[in-house]
Amino acid sequence: MANSTAATSGRDPIPERFASYEEAGEFWDNHSTDDYEDLVQDVEVEFDGRRRRFFVEVQEDTFWRARALAKSRQQSLEEMLHQLLESELAKVAAP
Question: For the residues 71-81, what does the mean pLDDT come to?
Fold first, then answer.
C-alpha cells in the first residue's frame, strides 16, 4: 500500500504488515476505513464455506505463555498453535 499519501494527508499511515491479528484490530479500532478510501482497491476473494474452525478453551496462563512464544517467533498465535499441535499429533500413532 502506498503510505506516502496517508502521511501527507494528516492521517496515520497503514502499516505494511501487522505483527498479529490483535495489532491489526487495535489499529482499525482506532481508525476509520473511510479515512483511507483512496488507498482501498477491489479484490476478488474466494471463500470456502465448508471449511470449519473449532475453538478450544485453554487455561489463561497457557494462553499468555503461548501468545508470548508466538510473538517471539514473529508468528500469529493461530499459526504457531497449529504448527505445535500438528507436530505433537505426528508423534502419536494414528488410531
Answer: 94
Residue 38 neighbours by CB under 8 Å, 6+ apart: 5
| Cell numbers for 5 | 499519501
Contacts of 39 (CB under 8 A, 6+ apart): 1, 2, 5, 6, 14
Residue 74 belongs to domain spanning: 60-91
Domain tally, the chain: 2
**pTM score:** 0.45
pLDDT digits (tens, 9 = 90+) for 32-50: 989 999 988 899 998 888 8
Q: Is 45 contained in some domain?
A: no
Query: Is residue 25 one of the residues assigned to a domain?
Result: yes
Provide CB contacts within 8 A for 27, sequence distance 6+: 14, 15, 18
